[in-house]
Amino acid sequence: VVPLFVVGVDFAVYWLHRGVHHRVFYERIGHAVHHRERFVTPFSSFAFHPIDGALQTLPAYAFLFCVPCHPDVGAGLLALSNLWVIAIHDVWSWRAGALLSTSRQHTVHHERFSYNYGQFTTLWDRVFGSYCPPGKWQ
């Protein structure tokens, strides 16, 4: 169930995150609050408007509603999701596989808003043309 969670939730988060960056929604939904901090830290992962925060967590909860699993597994998946969001907002540079999203990719997102929307992976950014490798702009 973990791979299905990662791929499914990441797909939904990708489109939701890309959507809240649209000029019509960016201020209205409150995602601009999250991007006020250009320098990402673990604390900036929690800097969001309540509406934006609710929307960003919706894919994980919707997955658990639609895909039956043991409550402990569900709690573990939510913990994984939260810890991953904290990790991609940390400046600690860690190496992962080519498709896993890290703080390096997410820092690009905070510097250049039109790239790297994925939460867990860079898969959907690569598929839909919004991937920007770290170091391209430096």
UniProtKB/TrEMBL annotation:
<dbReference type="GO" id="GO:0005506">
    <property type="term" value="F:iron ion binding"/>
</dbReference>
<dbReference type="GO" id="GO:0016020">
    <property type="term" value="C:membrane"/>
</dbReference>
<feature type="domain" description="Fatty acid hydroxylase">
    <location>
        <begin position="3"/>
        <end position="130"/>
    </location>
</feature>
<dbReference type="InterPro" id="IPR050307">
    <property type="entry name" value="Sterol_Desaturase_Related"/>
</dbReference>
<keyword id="KW-0472">Membrane</keyword>
<dbReference type="GO" id="GO:0016491">
    <property type="term" value="F:oxidoreductase activity"/>
</dbReference>
<dbReference type="Pfam" id="PF04116">
    <property type="entry name" value="FA_hydroxylase"/>
</dbReference>
<keyword id="KW-0812">Transmembrane</keyword>
<keyword id="KW-1133">Transmembrane helix</keyword>
<dbReference type="GO" id="GO:0008610">
    <property type="term" value="P:lipid biosynthetic process"/>
</dbReference>
<dbReference type="InterPro" id="IPR006694">
    <property type="entry name" value="Fatty_acid_hydroxylase"/>
</dbReference>
<protein>
    <recommendedName>
        <fullName>Fatty acid hydroxylase domain-containing protein</fullName>
    </recommendedName>
</protein>
